[in-house]
Amino acid sequence: MEHDSHQDEFKRDILIYFCIIALLGVIIFINHLHLKTLGIFLIVPVACIEAGILGYYFMHLMTKKKTVHLLLLLTVIVFLSLLFWPAWDVAYSPRTPSEFTIY
């Protein structure tokens, strides 16, 4: 029975490996279309999916759900703070008119 389990895992890993290669092919194909900004908006989600698959299966994050959720929460907190901190600084920091003057 244990042999079948290892063989099933091996087949799954090979399938995931070929999916990663296929996604890489999609990224390269989009890059060769020379879509400029639209290409970036197409490539980034494909790369995120690829990274998620790699992390979930090959880094064994599927077995550590609590840790993954905590890391995702931390990532969202850091992202939001970096996103809104400059806006808060511009809106509420005291500035003199000379700081906005262009010489």
Output the radius of gyration: 22 Å
Distance between the termini: 78 Å
Q: What percentage of amino acids are in beta strands?
A: under 5%
* Unreliable stretches: none
Q: Which whole number gives the mean pLDDT?
A: 84
Envelope shape: elongated
Q: Helix fraction?
A: over 70%
Structure annotation, total helices: 3
Topology as a string of helices (H) and strands (E)? HHH
Number of domains: 2
Number of strands: 0
Largest sheet: none
| Helix-and-strand structural type | mainly alpha
Characteristics:
103 residues; single chain
Quick description:
With 103 residues, this protein is mainly alpha-helical.
Task: Tell me what the structure shows.
With about 100 residues, the protein is an all-alpha fold. It is elongated and about 75 Å long. It has helices at about 1-30, 35-60, 65-90. The chain folds into two domains: about 1-60; about 65-95. The protein contains three helices and no strands. The longest helix is centred in the N-terminal third of the chain and has 31 residues, at about 1-30. Helix content is about 80%, strand content about 0%. The mean pLDDT is about 85.
List the helices and strands and how they pair.
Elements: H1 2-32, H2 37-58, H3 65-92
Helix pairs in contact: 1-2
